[in-house]
Each structure stands twice: as structure tokens, then as C-alpha cells.
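Q: Structure for this?
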Amino acid sequence: AQTVTQSQPEMSVQEAETVTLSCTYDTSESDYYLFWYKQPPSRQMILVIRQEAYKQQNATENRFSVNFQKAAKSFSLKISDSQLGDAAMYFCAYRSPGYGGSQGNLIFGKGTKLSVKP
Amino acid sequence: DAGITQSPRYKITETGRQVTLMCHQTWSHSYMFWYRQDLGHGLRLIYYSAAADITDKGEVPDGYVVSRSKTENFPLTLESATRSQTSVYFCASSVGLNEQFFGPGTRLTVL
């Protein structure tokens, strides 16, 4: 079974600085999808970024980018120019590509709580 | 565009009572999911549905029942609530197996 591990329960960053959140996963599959979700105090789960395993290029969405290392099974999230609104829980998630059974269900890490200091 | 909604947003109940959490989506997404979120566990899948009348168990299905008679609705029922079911419950939907969109969550307290 696939597992997702976020080794940093809490992180802190100064406003305008850069922070990197770590995520590792375990799978025997060669094709899959990875996601980062943000959960602010409002509890709403918001998709930040996604990465297809077959793509070598790292995904980027504005100030958010990932460092996807397939061989190392690592999927870190970099937040540049951190803003106060970035303070939230961040969850890394894995999904298999197939259909049927539990294929396609998201497997979440336990989350990293990010604080942003003004 | 309402998206995906959950009701109630907050619920307090007593041990042994039946509770139903509602989930409604306006996108006609084929897939719908129920998760629970607990400190130290992240989000865990309870049940999912690939289409109307098709449901299947996730990681933590015990004590829960789901149904999906219409594409847009996916209610979750706790047949006899227990204190261990105190949690925040999220409903989500997706088009096929693309990214999932989440509802705002329901905070359930079982006394």
C-alpha cells in the first residue's frame, strides 16, 4: 500500500522569505499523481499544485513550486516570497492513476503547520 | 456556482444516536468521497462513490453507511454514533480521477 510521510509537523518562515515543506512517499507504481493541498484556519481544503509522475518538469503555480525527485520518491513544496495568508496546514497527497477499486483515491500525509512571521 | 456544500456545518449529538451528514455538489462530478480529519492522522477516506448507486469502502468505513441515489448527493450516516467518531468530516468530488474539490467540512461532536 502507498504511504505519504510529512516529517515536519510544524514550520515557520519570515514574511517575504522562502520556505520548503518536505514530503516523501512510498509506492511500487511508476505512474501516479502528487498534490499539495492548503488548509487555512477556515478549514477549507484548497488545491495548491499538482504533479504528474510521468512529467520530468517540476510544476509551478505563481509563488509555489515543487521539487519532484521520482527516484528518491520525494515531493517538496517551495513557497517563495511568503505572505501572511500562506499560514496554514499543508497536506501532501498521492493518487494512483487507475480506475476501479481504490484506484484514484487520495492518500494524505499528516500535514505540516506553516506559520508566517511578520 | 455553489460548488460543493455540506450540512450541517456543526453538529453535536449523543452516543448511540443516528446522525446523517449531507453533501451536495452542483458540478455533476461522477466521483464523490467522504473523509474524516483527526489530529495526528491527516485525512482518511471513509467511503467513496464512482457514480450513482456505486459505492465502496475506504480506509476507515466501520460505523458508517453511505448511499448515492442521485449523482449530486452523497449522504453519510453514522448509525449509532460513538465518541471515537468525533471529528471533522469532509466531502469531496472529482471529474473522473482528476483533482478533488472539497466541501467546507462538518465538525461533529459526539458526547
